[in-house]
Structures are given as C-alpha cells and as structure tokens.
Amino acid sequence: MIGWDTYATRRHLPHLQKQGKTYFVTAVTINREFLSSCARSIVLETCLRDHTFAFWLHVVVVMPEHAHLIFTPYDDWTLSKIMQRLKGSSAHFINEACDRRGPLWLGESFDHILRSDESLSKKVEYVRQNPVRRGLVASPEEYQWLWPR
Q: For the chain, is the Cβ count within 10 Å smaller at the N or the C terminus?
C-alpha cells in the first residue's frame, strides 16, 4: 500500500499516489505530434480496454496532441503502472497502424489527485468541454474521441 508520503518519481515531477483516489491525468505527445483520426481511435480504444480491468474510467477525451482521463485505479494497479500500460500499448498499436517508429508520448504525464472538496462531475464536464473550447465541435456529443458521450 502506498501512503501519502510516498512519491513515485519519474524524471522531474513527483507523482503522488494514494490507493482508492481518483486521478485527473493529461498525457501529451512528444513535440506535440498530431494524432491522426486513426491514432486517436486507437488511444480511445486502449483506454476503454482497460476500463473495468485496471481502473474505473469516468471520462476520456483524445485531442489532436494530448489526452485527458479521469479514472480511479483498482487496488492492484498504481498510477505509474496504468500510464505505462496505456501509453505503451497505444504507442505500439499506433506505430503499427500508422507506419511510424519510436516513442509517441512524453515520458511524464501531468496528474492530479482529485481532492474530496472537488466535484467529480465538474471535472468530468471540464474534460468533456475540451473539444468545444478548442473549436473542434459545437457540443461534446459531436466529438468522436470522447467517452462517455
């Protein structure tokens, strides 16, 4: 079990992990590489594959060069293990499908444990509105790489 005073340090940022907590995570592509429609679909499918297996997924949106997720890991899964699995799997399948090579995601992701005084529904709605704020669609339901719609 990981306590509040335990940090999993990867590169430069400390990543606080606490069992039973919900995380808001942003993963960004290296050099803000644009994800094609096919690549965004692969990232979304990768996240949905692990929903109910490694974590409970509250929301995910895959933008052209980053992805936002809010999830609660299951007991045997750490934040670092989940992110390694998601980024590694999606990069592998994207490299295969898009005839590319090499790493896709920045080594570190921005992560934030949702505090008890933060509203999960407000954070979920913030993620859902991301493609609208970017001007990609008029409403979240129109965006293909958002779950749940």
A: N
Tokens of 107: 């080594």
DSSP category for residue 21:
-
Q: State the amino acid at position 23 in one-letter form.
A: Y
Inform me whether the pLDDT recorded for 4 exceeds 50: no
99: left (phi over 0), alpha (psi -120 to 50) or beta: left
- Integer Cα distance of 149 and 142 in angstroms: 8
* pTM of the predicted model as reported, rounded to 2 decimal places: 0.87
What's the rounded Cα separation, in Å, for the pair 113 and 131? 23
Extended beta strands in the chain, E state: 7-10, 13-16, 23-28, 55-62, 66-73, 110-113, 146-147
Both tokens of 83, joined, read 């992110």
Q: How far apart are CA 112 and CA 101, in angstroms?
A: 30
**Residue 13 confidence (pLDDT):** 47
The CATH superfamily holding the domain 12-147 is Transposase IS200-like (3.30.70.1290)
What would you report as the CA-atom Rg of the chain, rounded to the nearest whole angstrom?
15
Residue reference for tokens 């997924």: 57
